[in-house]
From TrEMBL:
Chain ranges of the Luciferase-like domain: 1-297
Protein name listed in UniProt: LLM class flavin-dependent oxidoreductase
Xref: Pfam families: Bac_luciferase
Superkingdom of source: Bacteria
Length: 326
């Protein structure tokens, strides 16, 4: 089983965005040394507690401080941009870091309705045009516009020796069908979906137009030396979700000490229990068994791990333990 990392650049409460981004760079360097397959950075806008609205900028820094790990966006939210601009940026990265760049593509807004308007104007109209935007981006990436197309005369320079590899990300059958139709590899966000993930990924493979179909499944994992410690560490992100549901939590991922002073309502306890059903939390042996079970359910050979904790050191240790397991 191959393991990769999805980083949302979380800001721990009491820390700054600069410290969060520095922690992301350190984690990428660690992942490079530990043998992880990929390090992808998510895109979010005007979301308190997350520090990366521009994955390509952070990837450029990470690329200069790592040696072999593949780097990518998880994802570029395509309706926010012109495809040509995205192609230029990822061609630039692929030129700087040959054979190491992935271009994850999504269609979510990544922020509020106001943010979408500020970024893209009529976002909903662009979402409707997602297949067309995707086609245009792929033509720019592959430099293969038909001669009669007005864009055939231009190129998204610099042209790298090895083009970035496009992936489509999603959590629904619609995204799976689009990936299959376009012949793209697919990433399913198990960590953020209540849908029947295994059925969606199976539909991707069943409908794929290429024999090179590939899928990755992204899952939340917190691993520590003991189950008790893992459960305690995981409370930071779970509690943050509770706060966010109430319109709070704007200062970032809360500390364990803060959580210990909090009195949960029955509804909040139920919410946490539901969240935990989609996460893998525990000691190394338990996590190993659960990851293998998840791999078998989805029938994939690569899992992408997202881990959010208040302690950046606990996050690094979780990834170290996973690397030892696999």
């Amino acid at each position: 089983m191959k393991l990769s990392i999805l980083d949302q650049a979380p800001i721990a409460k009491g820390h700054t965005a600069k410290e969060a981004l520095d922690a992301s760079i350190e984690l990428a360097q660690l992942a490079d040394r530990l043998g992880y397959k990929r390090y992808w950075v998510a895109e979010h806008h005007d979301l308190d507690g997350l520090a990366s609205p521009a994955p390509d900028i952070l990837l450029g820094i990470i690329g200069s401080q790592t040696e072999r790990i593949r780097l990518g966006s998880g994802a570029v939210l395509l309706p926010n941009y012109k495809p040509y601009n995205v192609a230029e940026r990822y061609h630039m990265l692929a030129t700087l870091f040959p054979g190491r760049i992935d271009l994850g593509i999504g269609r979510a807004p990544g922020g509020s309705a106001e943010v979408s308007i500020a970024l893209a104007g009529n976002f909903l109209e662009k979402v409707k045009n997602m297949p067309k935007l995707l086609d245009e981006l792929l033509h720019f990436i592959n430099c293969d516009f038909p001669e009669e197309n007005m864009f055939a005369k231009i190129a998204a320079t610099p042209i790298p020796e090895s083009a970035p590899i496009p992936w489509l990300l999603g959590t629904s059958e619609k995204s799976a069908y689009l990936a299959a139709e376009k012949g793209l590899p697919y990433v399913f966000g198990h960590f953020m979906s209540d849908a029947d993930g295994p059925a969606i990924v199976k539909s991707y493979f069943d409908n794929s137009t290429t024999n090179k179909a590939k899928a990755i499944v992204t899952v939340t994992v917190v691993c520590a030396e003991t189950t008790e410690e893992a459960e305690k560490i995981a409370q930071s992100n779970l509690h943050w979700k509770v706060l966010q549901a109430k319109g709070e939590g704007k200062n970032g991922v809360p500390s364990i000490e803060e959580i210990e002073q909090y009195q949960y309502t029955n509804e909040e306890i139920q919410m946490i229990d539901k969240l935990k059903q989609n996460q893998i939390i525990g000691n190394p042996q338990h996590v190993k068994e659960e990851l293998k079970n998840l791999q078998q359910r989805y029938d994939v050979d690569e899992l992408m791990i997202v881990t959010i904790t208040h302690s950046y050191e606990a996050r690094k240790r979780s990834y170290e333990l996973l690397a030892e397991l696999f």
